Amino acid sequence: MNQSIKKSQRIIVKIGTSSLIYANGSVNLASIDQLAFSLSALQKEGKEVILVTSGAIGVGLDKLNLKKRPTSIPEQQAIAALGQATLMNIYSQRFSSYNQETAQVLLTRDIIDYPVSRENVTNTIEQLIKMDIIPIINENDTVSVEEMDHQTKFGDNDKLSAIVAGLIDADLLIMLSDIDGFYSANPLENPDAKLYRQIQEINGDLMERAGAAGSRFGTGGMASKLKAAKLILENNQSMILANGSDPRIILDIVAGEEIGTLFSKVNEGRDND
């Protein structure tokens, strides 16, 4: 039983596209409903909850019945704009069924980098929390670009969630993925891969185990999650990486059950052997 996790008051949940979109490209309404139920239940319990969500482009592709993601940036940005509006509409419907209000907060990296903008964003999120409204945060994909003189992208929402955790001094980041936690090797390829129960430091060996860029288990997967975990550890915060196939697992995590991989400098007695 993880006592410090049970005591967490301000909790960020990051959910990835794989938990929101079926493999066939359709929106996973059941998963979104389970997510809304779990976060609403925590909010009613008195916890402070923030959701960082991916999925805008995936939802947009489904809305337009497109099976393939377009290659041009303007097309991707247009699909993201449509998808974000549709995704927020779905979230609003599902959270409303549990009498929980939500609000959209779209961020770009330059907002975080400039002190006045950062203060404004922080004040907005803090005020929403005070009003018992769950902030739903995503990157503003319609304007985020990667040109050298205009760096507005966070890189991925794993990093975004860790940055937001530092911004508002969260107690816990729960990162939901399509894997049970961090393994010693790719469990999809190696049946003997060992699940790490707790990691207290991110080192070069772990980054190598995360997989090479471009692999299913690498960039956009474990590599980005380890980079997010590194930020969390640097801020003396905690993060749990767990499988988001059923978002109701959030309630078990907050209840202190030993689930997934815990990234924390505080030794919780989790045995990696």
Itemize the secondary structure elements and their pairings:
Elements: H1 3-6, E1 10-15, H2 17-20, H3 29-45, E2 48-53, H4 56-63, H5 73-96, E3 102-107, H6 109-113, H7 115-130, E4 134-139, H8 157-167, E5 172-177, E6 198-199, H9 204-209, H10 222-234, E7 238-243, H11 249-254, E8 261-263
Parallel strand pairs: 1-2, 1-5, 2-4, 3-4, 5-7, 6-8
Antiparallel strand pairs: 7-8
Using brief descriptors, characterize the structure shown.
273 residues, alpha/beta, eight-stranded mixed beta sheet, 11 helices, globular
Give a summary of the structure in a few sentences.
The chain has 273 residues and is an alpha/beta fold. It is 42% helix and 15% strand.
Describe it for me?
This protein is of the alpha/beta class and 273 residues long. 42% of the residues lie in helices and 15% in strands. The chain has helices spanning 3-6, 17-20, 29-45, 56-63, 73-96, 109-113, 115-130, 157-167, 204-209, 222-234, 249-254; strands spanning 10-15, 48-53, 102-107, 134-139, 172-177, 198-199, 238-243, 261-263. It has an eight-stranded mixed sheet with strand order 3-4-2-1-5-7-8-6, with helices on both faces. Helix 4 crosses helix 5. The longest helix has 24 residues, at 73-96. It is globular.
